[in-house]
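Consider this today:
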Amino acid sequence: MDAAHAVATAAIFVWLGMVLAISFLEAPLKFRAPGVTLPIGLGIGRLVFRALNTCEVVLGVAAVAALVSGEGSTAALIASIVAVAMLLSQIVFVRPALTRRSDQVLAGADGPRSRAHYVYVALELVKVVALIVAGVLLLTHSA
């Protein structure tokens, strides 16, 4: 395994672990913690997801750059690009709607839940599948 391949593999699996831990473990559980109100949970969520998305951008750039510069599999590169595209869709198209809705809730507005949340989760699921595919392809390519 060359250095670029190792960097891509590490970046993909660190990214996958972060997404699984934050999106599918921390995010839903924080609202079940004693004393965590909806405004507090939303405030924490904003900070955590902003930090997560920043780390994801760095890891996505590192993975794609390593795959482009190394002798990685084309399929692993495509899967990585799909993951990056899902991330960019979340940041550019979905997070602004979620931010507007959380601003309304924090200001005391009632109303239905944002459908943008379901779009975010759907993109997150596609991203997780793409990361698993990229990671498996990278591991099998190194064998």
Remarks:
- The chain has one domain: 3-142.
- Residues 3-142 form one domain.
